[in-house]
């Protein structure tokens, strides 16, 4: 649900907000509500699917309100992505009321359908054709390209970046003694430093090690810093795509953790989902999902989480 909001992009109006959302999420949302926060030292953003008609909006809204309260958020903006006006109006109207009752200012509430946007003031969305917008031509989009930020056309397309490749690796059951934590960390650190992917032999050994040995699995992420986390994301994305089902859960859980450290919250959620297809109760994936749901900033990793090469 969450990840840090970038501090170097300043939204000054509805068009800026609409351009900012895909950049911070990493994809263009649909049938969703996005919350951007302002005020605490480390802001964050969150995205939820629009609540279905049979779900209480108040209970659904608590998934946004709870972390906002916890982190001392002072102001928020909401964008509902929906073609139909009524579900978005109903949801945004209730969100605005609940947040203001909690003492959190709502600076903007919009509905967007991908082409046009409408303000949603108290009392409902005003009539009219809406205001056209084009996030692709916005300066924030150009900034994202310069920064190397990839914006996928949907969450499904982002999740598809973890789909298995046609030629997956063998499970490697013939490895009699799995490599230990020191080998795992040194190999991953080298691959991340070189921005390389593991060859078939090392890939199987890495996957086997993190599956068979909890200490080796911890070695795969405990030494990762925020500065090099994105490179580790690249290594583990490749490993997840090549992993056989038998070894997939642990690899996807490690990817989820390093993606969270890198501030790639949406990818971290996708990795959690990928892990849970084979191991619904994986402990590390549960840790990451709890961090994301509570909007814990990966900046906390610098303060208390990282271990400097304990092997």
TrEMBL record:
This is DUF4192 domain-containing protein. Pfam families: DUF4192 (PF13830). InterPro entries: DUF4192. It comes from the Bacteria.
């Amino acid at each position: 649900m969450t990840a840090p909001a970038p501090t170097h992009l300043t939204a000054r109006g509805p068009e800026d907000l609409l351009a900012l959302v895909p950049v911070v999420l990493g994809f263009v949302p649909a049938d969703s509500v996005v919350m951007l926060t302002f005020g605490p030292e480390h802001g964050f953003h969150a995205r939820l699917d629009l609540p279905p008609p049979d779900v209480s909006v108040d209970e659904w809204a608590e998934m946004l309100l709870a972390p906002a309260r916890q982190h001392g958020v002072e102001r928020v903006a909401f964008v509902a992505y929906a073609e139909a006006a009524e579900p978005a109006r109903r949801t945004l109207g209730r969100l605005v009321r609940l947040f203001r009752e909690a003492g959190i200012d709502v600076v903007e509430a919009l509905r967007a359908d991908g082409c046009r946007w409408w303000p949603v003031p108290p009392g409902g969305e005003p009539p009219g054709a809406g205001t056209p917008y084009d996030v692709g031509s916005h300066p924030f989009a150009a900034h994202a390209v310069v920064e190397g930020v990839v914006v996928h056309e949907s969450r499904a397309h982002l999740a598809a970046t973890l789909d298995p490749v046609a030629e997956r690796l063998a499970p490697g059951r013939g490895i009699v003694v799995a490599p230990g934590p020191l080998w795992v960390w040194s190999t991953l650190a080298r691959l991340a430093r070189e921005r390389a992917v593991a060859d078939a032999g090392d890939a199987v050994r890495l996957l086997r090690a993190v599956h068979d040995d909890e200490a080796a699995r911890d070695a795969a992420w405990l030494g990762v810093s925020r500065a090099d986390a994105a490179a580790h994301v690249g290594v583990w994305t490749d490993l997840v795509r090549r992993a056989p089902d038998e070894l997939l859960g642990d690899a996807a859980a490690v990817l989820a953790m390093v993606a969270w450290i890198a501030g790639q919250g949406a990818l971290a959620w996708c990795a959690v989902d990928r892990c849970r297809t084979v191991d619904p109760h994986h402990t590390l994936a549960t840790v990451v999902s709890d961090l994301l749901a509570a909007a814990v900033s990966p900046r906390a990793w610098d303060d208390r989480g990282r271990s400097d090469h304990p092997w």
